[in-house]
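Entry for the shared binder. Reason: the reviewer on the internal report wants the predicted structure included alongside the sequence.
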Amino acid sequence: MEDLSHKLRSCLIISDDPEELKNTFIRSPDDYNLAGIQQYFQSPGDISFIKNDFLISPKLGEEYCLFIEDEYDNIARFIEESNKAEIIKNLVVCKDGNSAEKFIQLANISPILIGLDFRLTDEPDWHPLTHRIFNSIKKKWGEIPLFGISNWANQPDEKTVQLVKLVRSRKNSVLDKSQVWSALPNILRDKFEIGRLTRENYEIKKDLKNITDALHKNAFGEKLSDRSINKEFTELSKKIIGDSFKMKELKMHIELTAQDDSNIIILGETGTGKQNVAEAIHKLSHRKGQFIDLNCAAFPETLIDTELFGYEKGAFTGADTGKLEHKKGKLELAENGTLFLDEIHHLNISSQGKLLKVLEQKKFYRVGGLIEYDLKNVRIIAASKPNIEELIEKNLFLEDLYSRLFSFIPVIPPLRDRREDIPELVRFFLLEKEPLLIPTDDAIELLTKQPWRRNIRELRTFIHNLHRLCSIKRDLILDKNKVEYGLALHNKQAVKESLVSKVFSNEIMNLDLAVKKIAEPKAKEFLIEFLTSIEKCEGTNEVGLDEISKMFLNPKTKIPGIAYTTLSSNYNKYCKHFNSLMSLPELSGKLTVAIRYSKLKDLLHS
């Protein structure tokens, strides 16, 4: 009996015209005709031809290789070499760009490995189609190994070389078509094993996320990832930046903790935003009193009690209360509100003992006073560094006080543990200053890689310093060179003359350069959408940038000849780009020159 274990099990070939493709195989020479390639399969009927219009939800093997190629002989050869690899069992072949795009959209199982022929059409301008398919693949299956096949070595042109660089920059291979076939079985074996491990890892992460979401749904009635926080917290969260899992978890606990009146302690490294969290809890608790803060490290031991409990006139030398007989402490000022004790580990043991007694008995004395006062509905929120338990072991902090303040609110994560939040933080800190700077992608990437040992506070200071640097030249763009220069100064390192030259020698941007750099990818889409709507209007074929800016800043502005347009939900974000651009006196003369909207549209597309 013939051993079929090493042979292919199935091959699904999708094309615009499957019958014509099938007839091409039948009419082809013996080596690569339909009968010739059927020998590589366990059963002659394992090859299926399907029209892409009828592709609804493809039935796929658990492990399959996707090959996108427009020449039938290369398809046949790929089938032959896949069989030689003796590891691939199922194939999906897309014969043209339409079939590839539709399959990528509909496939519910990721391939193990992807092969992409660069030139999928005989048209001279074939590059955009390949770019589009490659980007669709990476968007849906970003980690799956891909290898490109091209004649770029023998027939180089600038666009193809750029495409090769793009594919390789995403950690994929590009193989020359004249040399690929002899080595293809070994290439397939190696990449297929990498792809299998990659997909297993992806599936594990996916399962883990589903399990985590299910646990959160059972506990809180909704997925943590889809959690809809209340309106008040939406405003409040402007100070609590980040959409990482750890920050979502923290925000959820802030909401839950706010509904309780128990005293709590917030732990986190310096600069992680402990006071912002405390203010959020107070705001959401609907307490009628004030939020009073006291930094325990800011007062010497001899004065901290007077700040905390208040004092009677004449209680000590210099205890002058003016016309009043006493001065209220922070505990009294926080009546019906919240007292935030920052850096509570700096309290001396004596003051800690007094505070513990207040929390237990709900009563206190002013310094130098004999009257006992009730603690009137004051919630204590304390903050300390994460090493507080070490201080307890060294008898520098009372364990009973810590127990009174302990809560389930998570330790605020340091910035190095949530680097995915750094881009959002950078943009938030840039928005605090005028004019608005626009960071480039490579600048954001460089900032994301930095350690930021003093966390958000250090990042915020650094960004504001960069803003001052850019204001010297009234430059709107925050690029990688400026970040590198700023980092060198920030870390007290020497700066190369070449870098200084790059940062300070830029000329004022002209219109084309300004629009290209200011309109980041999503803003470009928005601008194009806006200009397209103008294009449909009657009564005008020319629009000035000053008029466009007015509609950006106020979508209800009526411009003669331009119909009212409903802008997208991104309006508020992207109008700021244009507003900052229009605000620079050096550029205003150039920007207000009327230009054809079609020209601007072409510029944005470029």
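Summary line for the report: Residues 177-220 form the longest helix (44 residues).
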